[in-house]
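=== Structure Prediction Worksheet ===
Name of assembly: unnamed complex
Input type: mixed (protein and possibly other molecules)
Chain count: three
Listed entries:
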Amino acid sequence: MVFFAAVVAHFAVAVLALIGLRRRPVIAACAGLVVLAGTALVVATQAIGATSAPRKTIEWLPLLGFNFTFQVDGFAVVMALLVSLLGFGVLAFSIAYFEHDATFTRFVGLFMAFAGSMTGLVLAEDLFTMFIFWELTSVWSFLLIGLHDKSEVARRSAVRALLTTGAGGLCMLVGIGLLQNQFDTTSFAQLRDLAPTGTMASVAASLLLLGAFTKSAQFPFHFWLPGAMAAPTPVSAYLHSATMVKAGIVLLARTAPIFGDTGVWRWWVVLAGVITMLIGGWRALRETDAKLVLAHSTVSQLGLLTVLFGIGSPYATYAGVAHLVAHAIFKAGLFLGVGVIDHELGTRDVSKIGAARRAVPVSVVAIGACLLSMAGIIPLFGFATKEKALVALLDAEFGLVGSIALWGIVAGSVLSVAYSVRLLHALVRTPNDSASHDQHHAHHEASVLMRSTLAAPVVVAAVVSLGFGFAASTVGSWLVSPSSALDVKAVSKLALWPGINDALLISFVVIAIGAVIGWKAPLESKLAQQPRGERVFDVVYDSTIAGAKRITAVIQPGSLPIYVGITLLLVSIAPISAAFVDGFGSLSGLTSGTALEASVSIIAIVMAIGVAVLQSRFTGAMFLGGVGYAIAALFALRGAPDLAVTQLLVETLTIVVFLLALRAMTRITTRPVSRFPQITRMFIAATVGIAIPLLALAARDARTAPSASQDYFARSVDEAGGRNVVNVILVDFRGFDTMGEIVVLAIAALGVANLVRAAEQHRRAAISVKEVAGS
Amino acid sequence: MSIWAFALIAVLFAVGSYLLMERSLTRVALGVGVIGNGVNVLIIASGSDAGEAPIIGREGVLADPLPQALVLTAIVIGFALLTFLMTLAWRNWTITGNDEVEDDVEDRMITRRAEQTEKLGDVPHPEDVQT
Amino acid sequence: MIKSKILEELIDRWLTKVGTLVAIFITFRGHNAPGGGFAGGLILGAVFVLQYLAGQQPTIRRKPILNPERLLGFGLLLALVTTAAPLFVGGAPLESYIWSITLPQIGKVKIVSSTFFDFGVFFVVVAVVLLVLTFLGTRGGAISHEPTDGVG
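=== Predicted Assembly ===
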């Protein structure tokens, strides 16, 4: 399938950039441009000629129901177009932006990998496929935020973004697993037909929501997105405004028809969206860094989209798709525009960017147009889509939650008008100190080509915002297919001038109030504090790391006996706790045993205690041998003559080995350890001594199937020609194990030989040193 | 399983783990030996009932041969392991004059670094200081 | 070390020969009665230990075994060949083949191919004991009995 090939082509360019063309990143970037344009072309032609949505499944783990499934329906087409067209613009911009920047190679590679993952994500037809690409985008995003890896801020922000989205992704995976387990499918279409209900469905839906909220920076996970602005401008423009953060919205859009009426899904989504919209808008009004203003405005706009898809009525879905497109266009333009100003002036401070009017007039005009689109001013595209959103919410009948959504959006719109106007104000105002700009400009002579390359995508975004505004009805008809792919009833239209209605009146009031607030809003206001969400995250993160270090300091003090003690204690926790849960009933199954068995066992027990109590090495070895002989007798009693013979011989040889080694050890007794208190060691030993027999008992009672030996008994004489089944198992049925075992024996013996050789060498070296010293 | 096997396993594991937590390698080797015996008894006692030797043609109920085969190899491997350990202890003695396990200096350094970080804040990586 | 002429003689004349025979017998009969490569190997190993304790080199038929590492390799190779051999005649690894042959005086004898595997195990076990005796015993002892003053 051609779409799949397109996704693969993205990754191919990524590999090429990261490995093959490290020294010629511009060539790699051009290859990337070709791939992006080609993808856009393929998708566009598909959309024009399509009568049905083509589907493709690539089997991965069919037994578990995990396959890669892609489907190119209307919504996928519009998203894929956004991804590749915006990608084209941003990549073109970055060629100029990264001039003289050594990180460009890495940027191109990661950028193309990201674009490929994002295309895969929007084309995914089931949750599992989506999840794979979803996690990939998280990883690329992490690497791109931390592109300047020498910067502490960049690294911290990258970690914050990764951990937040990664945690959400894991929740999502659990949700997907629940759905797969319960309904045997993760396909969007099949789930929609099944219309899952019940507790399991609500839990799964909530987990998926956590994924969507973290990815799209919805309250309370809104903090990571502004932090991600540590990334270079093209990254912010592409990932953190236009595409990746939309992944959560895509998930919402895809799952709203499935879970819209499940439990408190709608309440949760709408409330999170409204809160996010208001927090983002409020912070955008107060930031002084233009890029951070845009970041918070993105958070706020994502809240609006969340509300629209959360309401999920046909009109709202249509409005959501329309506004998603509008936002992607104007926000990409705005980010790149701020990038142009930053590149030119060396500052993004809203009190200083007024100087850009003289430096880059064309870009400033384009930025202005994008700002007006964001504010929702006629005749730009943002006006048409926001009108549609208001109409949809006025129209929807969802009781209280509908009203919250409506008035939330009204309040949010006031704020979005306000922060847009505030930025406009910053741009038209003459800054206090224009000197710094000239100074900066003096040693920053970019070529005309480069400067127009920088400005072009901004201008294109502005022109498209304006053109789509005037052609609102045409564009609106294009959007019917995408939104009806989500909801068959979501058929509506856009208009440049909808006529006087309630929504329009609300809009006028909103624009008037917002404009006044925005114009009056101070440009210099300082935000001394780090955002609260970020602080909470940092506290949790730092205390986790500090806690880990403290635990490491306690359990890894460098003493081997203590390590062993901790390990033994942990090993015995599981059987003991299991015994407490299940009760000690299995103890009653113990038999009294024969007198012979009792006496042999008592001998072994006494000998074993002797090994522990006596400090002399030699006596210890003798007592160990005694334990072994007693156990050999026990084996003989239990019908294991092979074991008895082997054990007898091995114990004899063990004593000999101990004697050989102990010849050298001139101090007969060992010193007790000092740092590890005796009483603690005894406690741990007792715990192990209680835990392991309980485990043995449980293992014995847990048997459900007959022993594998029955088969061995049946086959032993005919197939292996032996009557001693133990031996037949060793040399025939389980001969491979024995083969491995004699290899272990050989290695141990060679180890012994080489240890002795090493000691000989050491001794020779010591003697020759002594001779030299003596002579 | 008889009460005697149960008690024997308990004592062997307790004694074995007590010895494992010592510093002297000889004592550790003794511990490995004792615990190895404990494991063997455990497998035999929990894996099968007592019976006649599992040789086809014998009268009566035959014991399960599979645990026996497992334990047979375990006995011999245990011997090889003990031999290696004792050679290690022996070599330690010929070189340093004792058979005790020293503290791991690297691990102590990690602990100290963690304490330092808590007092002074995060110590930047040397690479960051350069740039 | 044991320094007794009679004992030396005893070990040399009787124990070594009888022990070797017993070890081989135990290994052979392991397929049908208690015994096998591990037990047989350990018995022969015990014989060598006695020789060592009597102050002698491990010998078989008065020839000292100088290179136990070679014996170790031989045992491993024998076991490996037995494992892999059925592959060459189209069987599964470790598949057993049973031949019945009639020997004069003794009668019908059944030989199972896995007996060769058991002898591989036998040689490995013997070699392990020999390695321990030569290295930890003889060569290690030489170090242990040196005066240690000033060294280590």
